[in-house]
């Protein structure tokens, strides 16, 4: 996958638009672009109130002065969600996907649900979420990030939970969080001491002790930011230039822009490039541009139908699409190879068996590269059945041509060929089992790493709570972590059991295939003997 050819767009394209009735939909032209991207993608999305200069940062991440529309009037310029796909500047074999979202809180729309949906989609699709605001991170700024408190109503992790709150698992799948504060004019000081940007953010997110309604309302958005996102970072940008020049910032020469502003912008881009991870699905599955397109359509269609998007259901839907395509890819590799083999007749049967083994292994490798969550091995079985059916057809034609050309070998020779054929199938099965084992080990490793990252994040939050005197909250988080560890252990055990059953089923199918092969061979021997008889009478000429 990493060796796939990179794709670069000259300018942004609308990914998610709004119909006249207000319903969101995915643009087909954008899906076609994503379909061509087989590389893993790093997805950076920016959200924030309208007229806060979100688009300028995204243009800089794209390495351009212009691209995403900049709006200096009270009307939001960007509608829906726009995307820009470019080769990642520091991660070879990876595509950087930039998502610029419609400004939140646009007075002309007056639709808070629409804003919530845009924010929700930015969270679901990105691996790094940039929240852009102006001024300072005071209580008002935190309250304006109300959308984060609504995520429990907008996103479900598991379909089986119904109304249960599974937000404790958000940290496993949510993007990293960057707060970009624009037009920052205050001194960064805490209790009179100089503070770093991150210390300033942590101070702004500090919880208040107490359980009154007012305190709980104050703490809620701060707890959500701390608990949902695996990491958080802050950048404070000074005014970029004189007020009269802000409306055409993208057209200014760097000498007309504040050097401090340019320095923070450079630091922001460097951090985004180095720290933003490849987008992953549940269980650590890497997302390509093609899969990102499927994800966007799945989430948007679900939201537009009035249903809460579910991460587990999205993975199941993606697995079906990708596994069906993986079967097709693997079968095409095998069939094209066998067609080329026909052009080299006549051949020894051992040569045909050898090529069958090689092509079977290559087909399985091709399938494994694209497939995921084939827990019961059903799609791999479909590939094997289709491949064997194709093989039997080609092999009968090959065998008949070879035996007629060589005046048909004796029964002992046929027995030797049968043994070679069975040995080739045995080796093919061993190789298949090895590849399955590697795939299984990798998936379990990814699942374990995902759980470990989430646990590390929870441990950091618990330590922070203890340090700040919130012992009761820390104790509750400890209980959550114990339950979290139990669930992860159970999930890993279930995964291992599924894999064991998958291996057992594959072995059983191999044995059944061998039995069928022997029966077919006996039938072929009888047909060959009859053909030999006709050939000796001069009635059959090759």
UniProtKB/TrEMBL annotation:
UniProtKB keywords: Coiled coil, GTP-binding, Hydrolase, Nucleotide-binding
Any one Gene Ontology molecular-function term assigned to this protein's record: GTPase activity
Highest taxon of source: Eukaryota
Xref: InterPro entries: G_GB1_RHD3_dom (IPR030386), Guanylate-bd/ATL_C (IPR003191), Guanylate-bd_C_sf (IPR036543), Guanylate-bd_N (IPR015894), P-loop_NTPase (IPR027417)
Cross-referenced SUPFAM superfamilies: Interferon-induced guanylate-binding protein 1 (GBP1), C-terminal domain, P-loop containing nucleoside triphosphate hydrolases
Residue ranges occupied by any GB1/RHD3-type G domain in the UniProt entry: 38-277
Any Pfam family matching the protein: GBP
Coiled coil: 401-520
Homology family: Belongs to the TRAFAC class dynamin-like GTPase superfamily. GB1/RHD3 GTPase family.
Name of the featured protein: Guanylate-binding protein 1-like
